[in-house]
Amino acid sequence: MSINSPPDGSRRNSNTFSANEHEKIGDDDAKLGKKVLRRLLHLHKPETKILVLGCTAAAANGAILPVFGLMISTAIRTFYEPPHKLQKDSVFWAEMYVTLGVLSILIMPVQFSMFYMAGGKLIERIRALSFTQVVYQEIGWFDDPLNSRYLFFLLITPDEFHYLRAS
Fold this sequence. Notes:
The chain is built from 6 helices and no strands. It is mainly α. The chain has a domain at 47-112. The two termini are 27 Å apart.
């Protein structure tokens, strides 16, 4: 009897299902998708600040190309100006292009690193939750071939083939 099992010894809280039980549930895929998305958003709540910073960097990165197009269209006008103004404006636009390039080089790593950090923490949290769910299952749950240790390793670890060869 496990810690989470009821005192009368029933297996009501066991998460094992037969193939027919899934058909009886009949959850609509759209409803299930919304529930999964809602759960993922709830699990991502601690990284909200990181995600907002990543989304801001992604928006800035996405705005660079349209700004570049606008800058090119206005820079073309400088070719039709007098020579003294042409030299002054061409230096200005060259500095603007360099600034835009430096901004792009700085924004992209921020965007990627923020999303990598948030995703890594989410994966860590999901692995910890799935491990605790497996640990607190009843002993009979492990007798089912669908719940073998190999499938458990495949779900928990990224190096599943390494663990399969070792065991």
